[in-house]
Design brief:
- This protein is an alpha+beta fold.
- The chain has a domain at 104-236: Growth Hormone, Chain: A, CATH 1.20.1250.30.
- The chain contains 16 helices and 7 strands.
- Helix 4 (40-53) crosses helix 6 (83-101) and helix 7 packs antiparallel against helix 12 (180-190).
- The model has no long low-confidence stretch (mean pLDDT 88).
């Protein structure tokens, strides 16, 4: 929907790019370059995020991987001499996900921001006046569903105007709001007084969850219903390689190809591609409250 809107504004100049992205172009290997196991976005963001976060494990040899790419039967393949670069890429991707993208701080900040926006939306539905930029106000004070983005122009018009400044400024103002839930969440994000995060291999026991909710209710003098804004429990999943989605084929000099899971002689790709699931619990910690 957003791509079509941009394409209309550009008078059809990115029609070909959209066809490739949607896998509607006859040359299928081009789609793999923009949406696949070895797409250019992944090769770019791993190196870029590794540099800016200081996590050296993400520093892959993207230039060599690109140099080793070839096409066979309209499918993207990698020359056999580039197999070790691919192994390093897959390992680096997994490490970056667990060390950066799914890091506990990222998870808890996301949950706090989502909960703050949910509370702001609830207050807006109650008719409470909240500070917000025009674009953010549009979404707070209007009930917008997914279908509206396809049938109306206003949702997209306002969505493309949103950026970090809209949210950050609103959070600063909301930190002084009379609503204890919205102000506490907003101040927590601004002052980095973040939810405590506990990660385990099993879901949180019901008894512990009940204790946390009880402590939150006492600390803020709120109901159990409202305490849900200060507790979140869910799971994180990640796997390094999804053969069923888009395999990485290694091309040998005799013209034959093998999937990386069969060609690799260093890593157990089948083991590393197994989906890992971790359970996490985020909850707000108040001073002088024991959990």
């Amino acid at each position: 929907m957003l791509m079509e809107r941009i394409n209309r504004d550009l008078k059809g100049q990115i029609t070909l790019a959209i066809q490739i992205f949607k896998d509607e172009y006859p040359k299928k290997f081009l789609h793999q370059l923009v949406s696949g196991q070895l797409d250019m976005d992944r090769l770019d963001y791993l190196r870029r995020d590794s540099f800016f976060t200081g996590v050296s494990e993400g520093n892959i040899g993207s230039a060599r991987i690109i140099k080793m790419l070839d096409v066979k039967d309209d499918h993207l393949v990698v020359e056999s001499k580039g197999i070790y670069s691919i192994e390093n890429f897959l390992t680096s991707r997994r490490l970056m996900y667990w060390q950066v993208y799914l890091h506990k701080t990222s998870v808890t900040l996301e949950k706090m921001l989502v909960n703050a926006l949910m509370r702001a939306k609830e207050l807006a539905n109650q008719g409470k006046e909240l500070f917000a930029s025009p674009a953010l106000r549009y979404f707070l004070y209007n009930d917008i569903c997914k279908e509206d983005f396809y049938t109306k122009s206003e949702p997209i018009d306002n969505f493309i105007l949103l950026d970090d400044n809209d949210l950050w400024t609103s959070l600063k103002v909301w930190s002084a709001n009379e609503d204890i839930i919205l102000s506490t969440l907003s101040k927590g994000i601004i002052n980095r007084n973040l939810f405590k995060v506990e990660v385990s291999s099993t879901p949180i026991p019901k008894e512990k969850k009940a204790d946390i909710i009880s402590n939150i209710c006492k600390a803020l003098s709120i109901s159990k219903k409202d305490a849900r804004y200060f507790l979140a429990s869910s799971s994180l999943e990640n796997n390094m390689y999804k053969k069923e989605d888009d395999s990485i084929e290694i091309l040998y000099k005799d013209g034959t190809t093998k999937d990386i899971s069969q060609a690799s002689d260093m890593l157990n790709i089948s083991l590393l591609s197994r989906k890992i699931k971790k359970y996490y619990t985020c909850y707000y910690r108040f001073e002088n409250v024991k959990y």
